[in-house]
C-alpha cells in the first residue's frame, strides 16, 4: 500500500446519491481475488454501452477526468453489499480519495484497509465541490484537512489507527508484522 500524506488533484464529480457497491463494481466482476485490472470495470454499467464501447457522456470517459485522484460523490456513497472489490476498483482506476456527506460504514472500513481515503465533509462545502467539478483541491492527511481553491480549510475526522496505517502505507497485517519483535518478546516473557 502506498503511504498517503497529501493528495493534490482535480476532482471528478458523480453527484448521484445512494451509489451502491454494485454500481461501483458490478457483481459479474467479483470472480477475481486480485486488484489489478478492476479499474477498467469501475462503474461499468454507466461507462460502457452493451457492445463494450464507451458512453461518451459519462464523466469518467471524458478527458477532464483523466488523472483525477479525488472522486466527489453524492450522499450515501458505497451503500449496498459488502465487497472489497469496490475500493479495489476505484484505486485501480486511479482514485486515492472519495468525498461525500455520508459514506456507508462497510465501504468506509474496506476503503481504509486498502488505502482509499473516504472523507465525510459538511453539506455546505460538499455542495460547493459538487457545483465546481474539476476543482483543484488538496487533502492533507497529516492535518486532517481539505484545502479548497478559495483557501478555505475543511477539517475531517478519521479514526487514529486507520490514519496511522494510511500515513505509513501499511494495512492491519502489515502493522502487526512490524510488531513481530515485540510480540515475540512478549510471548517469551510469558512462556
Describe the overall structure:
- This protein is α/β, with parallel strands linked by helices.
- The protein has one domain (6-190): Aconitase, domain 4, CATH 3.20.19.10.
- It has eight helices and seven strands; from the N terminus they run E-H-H-E-H-E-H-E-H-E-E-E-H-H-H.
- The chain has helices at residues 21-24, 44-47, 85-93, 105-114, 123-131, 160-168, 172-177, 180-190; strands at 6-14, 70-73, 97-100, 117-120, 136-140, 145-147, 153-155.
- It has a seven-stranded mixed sheet with strand order 4-3-2-1-5-6-7.
- Strand 2, helix 3 (85-93) and strand 3 (97-100) form a beta-alpha-beta unit.
- It is globular, with a radius of gyration of 18 Å.
- The protein starts with 5 loop residues before the first strand and ends with a helix.
- The mean pLDDT is 94.
Topology:
Layout: E1 6-14, H1 21-24, H2 44-47, E2 70-73, H3 85-93, E3 97-100, H4 105-114, E4 117-120, H5 123-131, E5 136-140, E6 145-147, E7 153-155, H6 160-168, H7 172-177, H8 180-190
Parallel strand pairs: 1-2, 2-3, 3-4
Antiparallel strand pairs: 1-5, 5-6, 6-7
Amino acid at each position: 500500500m502506498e503511504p498517503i500524506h497529501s493528495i493534490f488533484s482535480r476532482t471528478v464529480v458523480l453527484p448521484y446519491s445512494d451509489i451502491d457497491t454494485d454500481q461501483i463494481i458490478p457483481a459479474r466482476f467479483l470472480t477475481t481475488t486480485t486488484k489489478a485490472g478492476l479499474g477498467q470495470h469501475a462503474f461499468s454499467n454507466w461507462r460502457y454501452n452493451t457492445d463494450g464501447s464507451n458512453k461518451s457522456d459519462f464523466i469518467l470517459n471524458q478527458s477532464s477526468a483523466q488523472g483525477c485522484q479525488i472522486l466527489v460523490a453524492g450522499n450515501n456513497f458505497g451503500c449496498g453489499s459488502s465487497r472489497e472489490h469496490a475500493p479495489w476498483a476505484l484505486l485501480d482506476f486511479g482514485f486515492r480519495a472519495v468525498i461525500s456527506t455520508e459514506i456507508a460504514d462497510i465501504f468506509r472500513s474496506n476503503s481504509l484497509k486498502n488505502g482509499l481515503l473516504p472523507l465525510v465533509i459538511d453539506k455546505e462545502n460538499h455542495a460547493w465541490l459538487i457545483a465546481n467539478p474539476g476543482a483543484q483541491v488538496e487533502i492533507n492527511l497529516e492535518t486532517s484537512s481539505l484545502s479548497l481553491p478559495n483557501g478555505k480549510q475543511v477539517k475531517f475526522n478519521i479514526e487514529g489507527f486507520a490514519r496511522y496505517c494510511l500515513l505509513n502505507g501499511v494495512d492491519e497485517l502489515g502493522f502487526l508484522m512490524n510488531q513481530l519483535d515485540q510480540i515475540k518478546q512478549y510471548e517469551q516473557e510469558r512462556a
